Amino acid sequence: MGKNKTDLLAGTLDLIVLKLLQSGPANGWDITQRIQVLSQDILSVNYGSLYPALHRLEARGWISSKWGASENNRRAKFYALTTAGRRQLAAERETWERFSTALELILQTR
Length: 110
What we know:
By secondary structure, the chain is α+β, with helices and mostly antiparallel strands. The protein has helices at residues 10-21, 28-38, 47-59, 83-108; strands at 6-7, 26-27, 43-44, 63-69, 75-81.
């Protein structure tokens, strides 16, 4: 039986993007591929969701962008985590951990 792909919840995409950019700059294609690979093909994100999230994160000052050449020598925009983005990632991660703990407690209730 094949794995079902799961669309990302709106709030989780920002957290995932910030986390992935923690390891260094990436372009949109790289980000979508890393989400798919790291989630073992369970999560997928389409460009119609990713690029608005990237623009929102950039507008908030949590990421920056600059044009460069991709691995196949095509012009691509690369996104990088800012200092404010690192602080936001830490805050979001703490919130997510509290939420997931609470959800797990609820799901275990009989």
